[in-house]
Amino acid sequence: MSPSHVLEPTYQSLRQLLLENTWPPGTRLETVRLADLLHVSATPVRDSLNRLLGERLVDFVPGMGFHVPRLSEAGFRELLACQLALLRVALAGDIGPEQRAPDPSLSTEPQMCEHEVLLGVAAAFGANRELHAVLSHVSLRLEPARSAERILFSDTSDELSKINVLLSAGDRNGLEARLALYHYRRSEAAARIIARLERG
After folding, report:
1. Looking at 44-87, which runs of residues are DSSP E strands?
2. Which helix (H) or strand (E) element contains residue 186?
3. What angle do CA 89, 108, 66 make, to 5 degrees?
4. How far apart (Å, rounded) are the C-alpha atoms in residues 161 and 157?
5. What is this structure's pTM?
6. Per-residue pLDDT reduced to its tens digit, 118-162
7. Do 79 and 135 lie in a common domain?
8. N or C: which end of the chain has fewer CB within 10 A?
9. ∠57-130-147 over CA atoms, to 5°?
10. Which of 67, 83, 109 is the last residue of a domain?
């Protein structure tokens, strides 16, 4: 196992590259090349890839190694449906008196805005830690597709702003309707989103 002061930055760098859709789905993730890219030895890269495999952010095929996951239309729709179901469970909770909506304009990582806002919904309505962890996991698996969504949809920032306004107001019914629309739109455009994602 690599020392933590080497492993953690390597893991974070690889994770970010994957979430940014740096490589097209199906791309083989070669340990030596990644080590050269990140200026580290092969060991922390291998350890990081195994950790990312556990998070299902990379795939592993025996005899072929690690690869960027390939998401099908059906798989994409299943993740969307799972995410919406988790958000609906979160909305059934009690609003925490000191919780407020995260402001995506304050994020230092613009590509993570949707992830932060959706987790903010769960946090604001008092979702338990396990639900929050599962929602985070599902949302991160959808993150590479969001790069394609931002190309296909010109109003993703406006979508987030509307969710944030409803969240700030504690409008449970409005949020449920807005989140349903958010997920329906992406489910209907699944073929276009996956095609764009495949192009990298």
Report:
1. 59-61, 65-67
2. helix 172-188
3. 70
4. 6
5. 0.85
6. 998 888 887 688 998 999 999 999 999 999 999 999 999 899 999
7. yes
8. N
9. 35
10. 67
